[in-house]
Amino acid sequence: MHANQQSRGFTLIEVLVAIGVMALMAWMAWRGLDGMLRTQSSLQTRSDEVRTLQAGLAQWQTDLDQMAELAGTSSWDWDGKVLRLTRRSVEAPETSTGAQPSVQVVAWTWRNNPGRPGGGDWQRWQSGALTQRQNWQNAWALAQQWSQTPDDLTRAGQVQIHPLGGWQLFVHRGGSWTNPLSSDATTGGTAISGSAPDGVRLVLTLPPGAAGSGVLSMDWVRPTLSGAPP
Questions:
Q1: Distances from the Cα of 83 to the Cαs of 13, 49, 194, in angstroms?
Q2: Helical H segments across 158-227, by residue range
Q3: Are 106 and 84 within 8 A, CB to CB?
Q4: How many other C-beta atoms can be found within 10 angstroms of the C-beta atom of residue 38?
Q5: Contact at 8 Å (CB) between 93 and 99?
Q6: N or C end: fewer C-beta atoms under 10 angstroms in the chain?
Q7: Given this model, what pLDDT does residue 18 score?
């Protein structure tokens, strides 16, 4: 036996096997990390869409709660395409005599858009704070224009709420729910447009997506309504 016998090194096959094992481990680790990132991204997308829808529904509720009944103005108008409301403003314009009570005109609509999930979007529009009747009339007409032929001026007050396949509104008057565009929604030949109904049922058709799909219904009851709720 030689005292200076050289140490035996790795063979080429052993080196290749070791490299293959490390590559397999790296691939498995990458797959696991990729799966975690995809899951996190999916959960974040779902969370964002749910929050957006919840914010839209909360804004809808607030707009109805804050409807203003003023002499000579309409607080509510629904023509089958756009819902226009007059509501108390959260803004209070400052003048030389201090803050003045004001209102806003808000409008809600579903706008057709084939490029969006479900084929359209739920949108909201609002005016600035209004203290003069003439300004209210202009904003009321502008809301109608926005729903039909939006331009750069009207789009300035527009907010995209959520993609929708469609929506429906029902109103509660005289003890029952009715379609506000049907003959049942009139009393004595007078349409309900102009004054707030006792209740409003909002029905949204949600397209498949992170926030869920199907029909979502939400009822609103006028805060000043006395007696049993609808």
A1: 76, 24, 11
A2: none
A3: yes
A4: 10
A5: yes
A6: N
A7: 80
Which backbone phi and psi does 18 adopt, to 5 degrees?
Answer: -65, -40
Going by pLDDT thresholds of 50, 70 and 90, the confidence category of residue 213 is confident
Location of structure tokens 């579903």: 110
Q: Is 35 helix (H, G, I), strand (E, B) or coil?
A: helix
Sheet containing 158-163: give its strands across.
Answer: 76-78, 82-88, 103-112, 120-126, 158-163
158 is written with which tokens?
């527009």
Instruction: Reduce the DSSP state of residue 181 to 3 states and report it.
Output: coil
The secondary structure element, H or E, covering residue 85 is: strand 82-88
Q: pLDDT per residue over 53-91, tens digit each?
A: 899 999 999 999 999 888 778 899 999 899 999 999 876
Closest to 164 measured CA to CA, from 217, 213, 108 = 213
pLDDT class of 100 with cuts at 50, 70, 90: low
